[in-house]
Amino acid sequence: MGPMKTKPAHLIAVAPCSFQMPSQADGNLVRIQVTPAGLFQPADGRPLDVPGWYIDAATAQVVIERFNARRQPLVIDYDHQTLNKEKNGQPAPAAGWFKGLEWDDQGLWAVAELTDRAMESRAKREYMYFSPVFGYDGTTGVVQELHMGALTNTPAVHGMEGIALIAAATFGHYQPEDVSVDKLLVALIAALGLAENATPDQAVAALNARLTADPLSDLRKALKLDDKADQATIVTACSALMQKAATADPAQFVPVAAVQQLQGEVAALSARLQARDEVDTNTLINAAIEDGRLAKALEPWARDLAKTNVAALNSYLDAATPLSVLLSSQTKGQHIADDGTGLTQDELAVCSQLNLTAEQFKAAKGA
Length: 367
Known about the structure:
It is a single chain. By secondary structure, this protein is of the alpha+beta class. It is built from 14 helices and eleven strands. The chain is rod-shaped and about 155 Å long. 21% of the residues are buried.
């Protein structure tokens, strides 16, 4: 089968080089030589538009990278029926699927998973060889991309080095890459900070939310701008804020540390003043009791008044007239005997200061 042109610099070669299929495998996995290394040609006499096909380590790396970038695995069919089904109308069932590519000094190799039917056909020796389909440069013949492959019985290149090795290979140690894992999806899930078991729909929803979110929303709020303010307005607001900060007068502001220190000093001073006021108030009340301006019975009232209005207490005591009876009754806390009214000397002092008679006081006291 001849090469099929797709564009001048890139051709697709159906190359039934017919490397013998391996007889040993790990399950349905087999290792297949896709191309030899260096320059190679078919032996069936087909005309070529290039001196030959060529692949080396560097060009093989390009082929491998393009293979790894594919989202779907490449098919292996029977006798290239995938290419012929439009002409003969026959079905093109898969014989297997490529799982991975690698390079060594003997050429380009593939790990493939064959179907049960293909494995059975190989065991019955119904299909003995493998034929790749690859794209190549129409000028240099350099292999550029693997397209598919086929099981075939029509050898085109005989005696290839490594055929016996392929047939005798044991693949139990080979662990093919799980191409079912979408590396791009895994990277996207990690970049979005989603759980490792996030579904593709969840990843897409998170990505859409990230893409549609307005990155300037928080900045508008911080600058107290309208929700629809454009970038020019935001830049202007930022520039004004920076200008204001640059031209701020240090004389108009006090360091936070200085303010905190001042607050501490004021609190301490207030505490000292309160303590001093309490001492002064105590001295004032005691002096008023001693000199007869304040009856002992009125001491609780005077102390309560001093807590809320010292000025009012001072005014009361300034206007009060010292009573000699209080002077004699309050000395050392000793009470003078009743004068016949039935009241103590303290009670008589209260009557005097409140301008009450003994009877009025007793009536009020009884009530």
